[in-house]
């Protein structure tokens, strides 16, 4: 059997151009390929998925950039932080009698004869960053960071790599002549007034970011990336979604432009933003991408997943949360439901003197925390949540903090960039608000706006992005946990529950397999579909009507919370429909919470 004329891993551009030549040889015109795939994507899918090539593709990170070679295939995981619009480029041109393509490549080769035919194509530009709050256990395994090209590296290249690692330099990563494909010296091309190939490059987020910065901190072993998307509908990729991209990595340190050479910069590109050093922000020409949900970030446990096993995992997790909370089981039960919650766009019609209510979110406010017990129980609780959820952030709330930061993303028209804020978070993120440092003070206009942004995000799961001349609502899916001494006045949560620990004994350690089981459990159960059968729906409606008659202070929000808790209680046992047993468990939890709240007054 004759092998392929190209190596998809080490020479992906060879695959692109070989499939292009094949398409052109079948009497296709270059115009007929505008905005279309001519078979290159299928070649990469076969290599990656059918032939098992995905495991050979190295991850792109700050450490692997020391050895990964330009114009080779890499994987990158990140959140879409900004959408930079579309870019025009010379997609194909005719050189003599032959058509040549520039697709999936930086720079735009062009015909030597200005009168030759060219096809102007378009690609989307996405600025992707490390996922805010991503915990270390989500990072890819060390063996995924190995260098698959190490055996093919020359002695000179190995010496250069050792020097780079010793000095932590971002110097040239390949010796001249060692690149798999020749990369042109990219310059901005102008023809008939059309600008081609602007270099939309962003600053890499620095390691020195702090939790009080307007930009979320990132993992040390992470990079930001400019991803170029081809032949994909705009609806496939949305702001703040987490994706895994497989594509062709490009890098050229010669593209760096001196910042003081203003005249050169203005001539080189239309936006100063685009002239950031390409050695700091790599570019990736995407050939395959997939959206990542919570279940895609956890590994499956080696267990027989039956209903008894799910119940056993559930009870073990509640037991551990109870130990972390000083023996207080009631908040442990509520925290489990809280961690399983997610914002949904679907509605449930409840005929209990209420309109349609959104079911999904369940924010939780645990009270009776102070600076003393926060250092024990609060910090341990945050550590546990970070070990269970893939993306977690903690915000210590103070008046000075609210007055000094910008939480919502804001458009910078000078750079035409969306400047990230702490509340630009990925789907399924968990946010813990620590109000124990909060003292009396006066909020300025910025502080009042930040408090309103937080409250709006918690209540409606929407963040108002600031575009200076107008505000735009962006959907969110973020779980809020507030730890405070008394009921929070800034963030009125769906549930308020006093915290009553009975012991300060530390919780016992948890082995890695159990942690994997808990992570899988939370990610899988929260994604289960759910329904209420008509007979039980009637019983639920009757309970809601009776509750309203007994307590006229109950509101639509209370009914929404009970329905949400019913769904969460069901899925916590692995069930996809509400049962009377689970509904009764919800009512009992609410009775205990009400009694505790009244006893705490």
TrEMBL record:
- Keywords for this protein: Nucleus
Q: Name one GO biological process term.
A: DNA-templated DNA replication
Region: Disordered, residue numbers:
155-187
| Gene Ontology CC annotations of this record | nucleus
Q: Mind listing the GO molecular function terms for this protein?
A: chromatin binding
Spell out the Basic and acidic residues composition-biased ranges: 178-187
Query: Where found?
Result: Nucleus
Protein name, as recorded: Mini-chromosome maintenance complex-binding protein
Species classification? Eukaryota, Viridiplantae, Streptophyta, Embryophyta, Tracheophyta
